[in-house]
Every structure is written in C-alpha cells, then in structure tokens.
Amino acid sequence: MQVTSIYTSLFKQNDDLTQFIIKHVATLQDRSVLIITSKIVALAQGRTASLTDKEAIIKSESREIISTPYGTLTLTSAGWCINAGVDESNAYNELVLLPQHTLQVATQIRSMLVNHFKIDNLGIVITDTRTVPLRKATIGRAIATAGLIRLKVILAQPIYTAALAGRHKVILQMR
C-alpha cells in the first residue's frame, strides 16, 4: 500500500468539491482509496455559521445534549460528539458544522471521479475526528464510504493496560 498526501490550495466555502479534487489530483489508479475530510465536505455544502450563534447551532444540530464541565456532549446524526461536531479550528472566525448526507456525497464523488479518471475501482472515505469520553484526545473515523463493499473489524488478542482496553484491526476491502 502506498499513502500519498495531496497538497492543495485553500478550499473555500461553496467551492465545487469534485472539481477541486480533479484540479489537485493529477491521476488516480484503479483500486485507489481517496480520503476526504468532513470539514471540506461541509464547506462545499455551505455548512458554516457565525461564531455568535454557537450555542443555538449546537442545540439545533443535536438530538440530545448533556452539559459537562469539559464541553457539551451531544448526540447527532453522526453519533455522540462534543459540541455537535461544530468546529472553530481553521474556520476564520466562523463555525463549520458537520456535513449532511455524507453517504450520498461519497457516492456522487466516486461516480464522477471514476468517470473522469476512467477507472473501475475507487474507494471514497469521508473522515471526521471524534473525542473519546474521559480522554484528552481525538480519533479519526470514517463517517461515510463508497466503493468499499466490506468493513470488517477483527478483534485481536486484548491488551490490558491503564490506557488501552483492547486492540482492533480494521480491514477495508475494495468492491
């Protein structure tokens, strides 16, 4: 497996995401997997808000809310997260919300890129980070995929330490 970082220009709100990818990715080989951050998907969808509306946005984006001393724990369509996934980092004095309809977005991007690059097999993964309860860290997660038919989680022998209760191996298999 070869992992390649793609350096791009700044993605701006309401830019066309597929055209942005085509502009910055010279070629995609058959059986490639392209990872796209949820923040860029949200920006393409225009999912931003004013910093002054933060509390109202968190409330409107949440199904359930639990206030804690460390942040607002919320249940959203993407699962449990802090502050309904509302992100202030690198947002230039705005809030970036979680994207909507990510499975549909991943499928549309995959279809357009397969046609553009004239390949048969392409995986698309839209990623986000989430907090881990009672931990001062975040983890990456896939919130939508297209072109990958199977996601298996294989439990390995558990490792018991104070910080790690188990080890998992994740396998993505191309369609």
Protein architecture, described:
With 175 residues, this protein is of the alpha+beta class. The protein has two domains: 11-40 and 100-175, CofE-like (60s Ribosomal Protein L30, Chain: A); 48-98, no CATH class. The protein contains four helices and ten strands. The strands form four sheets. It has a three-stranded mixed sheet. The protein is globular, with a radius of gyration of 18 Å. The two termini are 17 Å apart. Mean pLDDT is 82; it is low at 154-175.
Keywords, separated by commas or semicolons:
alpha+beta, 10 strands, 3-stranded antiparallel β-sheet, disordered C terminus, 2 domains, 175 residues, single chain, 60s Ribosomal Protein L30, Chain: A
Q: TL;DR of this structure?
A:
The chain is α+β, with helices and mostly antiparallel strands and about 180 residues long. The protein has helices at about 15-25, 40-45, 55-60, 100-115, and strands spanning about 30-35, 50, 65-70, 70-75, 80, 95, 120-130, 140-145, 150-155, 170-175. The chain is globular, with a radius of gyration of 18 Å.
Helices and strands in order, then pairings?
Blueprint lengths: L16 H8 L7 E6 H7 L3 E3 L3 H7 L3 E5 L2 E6 L2 E4 L11 E3 L5 H16 L4 E10 L6 E9 L1 E8 L12 E7 L1
